[in-house]
Amino acid sequence: MDPFRSYDVRGLYPQELDEVLFEKIGRAFVLLYKLTKVYVGRDCRRSSESLSKAFIAGALAQGADVVDMGLCSTPVAYFATQHGAAAMITASHLGKEFNGVKMVLKDLAHVDDIPGIKALTQSSQWPDASPGTISEGSFVREYVTALNKEGIPSNKKIVVDCGNGMASLTATPFLQRIADPTFLYYTMDGLFPYRDPNPLIDPLSGLRKQVLKDKALFGVAYDSDCDRLCLVDELGDKIVGDHTALMLALSIAKKGDIVVLTPNLSAVVTQILESKGIKIHYCQVGHIYIKKAMKETGAVFGAELSGHFYFKSMNGEDSADLAIVHLLRLIDKPVSQLIKRYPMPPKSHEINFEVNREQAIAAMEKEYGTKEEEWGIWHKDKNFWFLFRKSTTEELVRLVAEADTQEILDELVKKISDMVFACGGKLQVLP
Predict the structure, then answer these.
(1) How confident is the model over 252-292, as pLDDT tens digits?
(2) Model's pTM, two decimal places?
(3) Which of 77, 167, 305, 415 is placed for a possible disulfide with 162 were both Cys, Cβ 3.0 to 4.6 Å?
(4) If we measure between CA atoms, which residue out of 128, 119, 136, 133 comes closest to residue 24?
């Protein structure tokens, strides 16, 4: 599969990307965007250090100065963009066999020309440049200081599943100040021995058991680079992203404020927020689109079903850390009781299909008469809706559906699944 995705680079290491390619990507990033300085961080995957060195070598060779931030989380790398462009060597929530790089410009401006970067790596025609200089620097302390400004010290008992990822580096300094946390899987280990890097697809057995054992108020699980999270209530049950998004939005937004949402969130989220006088701006799934929409609309908060939450107070950055800060401020009683106030209709989880994407989209357009837009096919009927879209990070199509009754939902999901299977598709099988 082509590692050059819609807005970043991700692929199997070393089959789809390696140090040779990353040296070229470093060069291309500097050349295409005329950069004079780049801040480079990396996660704890086994291949990240060598890929980071290669990326840095390319950036230096093309004339940019480089600040090597070493091990850090994606939110810390984003935080560094207040000073200049940044690159984070990570495959985000993908498995241990993957790696990649997220590139962002100053003040979180998104990199909008991945095809241009790809073209430069393929041509390998590099203009002469005086080599840049390298230095070391870390923004972890500044980032934690920013979190502490929003946190309120408490003795609330929580359990934090670091997943052997970058939360092991950043979570302790601020959470120990504002809560009474128990940490799980705290040692950084790029093999992720205890659970999947993506907490949304992992059963989170360890976290759920520890929440019950500690009689904790709630538990949270980070993904491997700390830009998404999954919430677990006091009973050890996973809370869907719809409820987490709603709770955060209600705690942050006031009447007249704008909140950016993706169409795969429950319609109930929009209904409740609009009933409070909060304005909704819909945006296609993907962090670059949400950040851009937040800046254009002045939104105070943004949310995705996948557990990415965005905050105006941190320049539109998605930060699982800041989401936990706000959860600690708003949760003062059992989470299971809080969400009972906001019942959700039957809704599917995100169903992923491996299929010829253009063929599947065409079949759906023909059947339902709704054309594909920037966010996919978002079809609304009187007693159901669904979003059928191409993934921006993997070669998949994703389906989310919601209906008035479980029977309608089951029939809808079966019908769409059968249509995908008729196109030669199959359900994605997770390892």
Answers:
(1) 999 999 999 999 999 999 999 999 999 999 999 988 899 99
(2) 0.94
(3) 167
(4) 119
